[in-house]
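quick one before i forget lol
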Amino acid sequence: MSNMELAELIRAGGPYRGKATFELGDRAATDNEAASLLGELTNLPALREDRIHAMSLAWAAITALLAARTPHARQVAYQAFGALPEHEQRDLLAYLRCTRIEDAQP
């Protein structure tokens, strides 16, 4: 599937939203378009509210962007993190065990 098709699956919701999110996250290490799309998608209420245990899909996307370890993906992660509500930022930093998103090394 293309990046755009994965993004459409995420936007549409349903049972494949999580798998599509993780696939874009995997692609972020070698594909700036995938990283950018994933960063944009973290603003969707569905990704912010859909949780796997305590972690939202938005957190998973941000963590995948950080783990991609490219300058572009990290910048996208920082922007996506900055768009989270303050309490979500605090909780994500605690999950990542760091005090600043720039120090996160998932």
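fyi The chain is about 65% helix and 5% strand.
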